Amino acid sequence: MDPRPADIVKMCVEQFDKVLEPYNCIQVMATIQDLEDKGVAKCSMPSALPEYRHIMNFTSGCDWAELTYLRYAVPPLMVLCLVGNMLNILIYGLPYFEGSSSVHFLRAKAIANMVFMFSRILEVIHAISTEPVGWLEPLFWKSRPYLMMVSNISGTLSTWLTLMVTMETVMCIMTPFIFRKYCTKKMTWIVLILSGIAATLLHVAIVIVTDVKEIVQVKQYIQNFKKENAACWYLQAAFRVRNNRDFEIYRRFYATATMAVSIVIPTVAMLVCTFLIINKFTFKNLGETFSQRRKCVIRMTVATSATHLFFEGPATLTHSASAFQGDNYGELMCLLNHGNNLGSLVNATIPFFVFLFCNQQFRHMTVMYVKAALETDEVKRKSYYSQAGMRFGRMSRIETERSMAESRLVSRPSNV
Could you give all domains of the chain from N- to C-terminal order, each with its CATH number? Predict the structure, then answer.
């Protein structure tokens, strides 16, 4: 009577302490039996031999591109992303932005950007390590579907939040009465919670349709070339990530839905909204229609949307083309995909620096906030924090008046 697959798996767990597929288990046991029949024994020090195979290498142009940007581009982007988005979150909390509903979306977007960036941390460590590391290989591969899910959730949220800020700004410009009625802090939190739930339900499919399999091979090691029969055998494992064939239809539906909901529709909608904002805000004389704070938020919205469209727009074409090619995109499509991944990481990093370059008010608040953080004197620190929450023009007038007053006091002769 042939053993059941479950019995074969149990046998491998008892003998090798690994959960293997029945076919792989039988293959390993047959190879070991054949080697032992030839007089090849098990290595006496298997711990000194590589337990896992580091499958990332420079064997193709696509592998080379992936390893290059993971090793040299992503680490500095992580540092800039952390610094920039943390400053964004802190500056959005200044009194200057109180009462703005859009700032809650921008704050949540900064958090989503950091989560998106640092969900790649194991990929970077795995790419930097040239030799397989015993604790890293199983952690990296077994956590990969979950980190991919987290990355996609945060990336989708970042895109949706950018779209929400852009749509809110369009409502503020086109229909100010509806904007004041519906764009409240309470509605913002409701939208944020519903968006998080929707993004999670959309991308939880990654864990369902993705399988991580450990494949074990029997390797021979020659301890001493001068001695006969000096070879010994040891086990070496490698991990493979592949799609679960039982959920193929579900996977294709998920790929199509993700392309539409996370990339194509938001990108097109953002393009239309950005055009409306620029058309209204640039070519119309708004005068005193908007407060200085709202104008600052509008400029930040335009910068955010333009940056997103610049770096994420090409991903729409790539995903649209790849959706009709199944799993084998080809070398060119693979390179384009890695290019879009790098563009997404840059997009998660640069909003703070774009605001810093394009917005004088934001630049003033950043300088004052950094000065306050570095200042040791308590009185000066409070003064800098107070100046960070002021309008740039108003602060300039205060500084001018203070300088004039101080110069008069200094130039006035003393009667003492």
Answer: 5-54+213-241 (no CATH), 61-211+247-358 (1.20.1070.10)
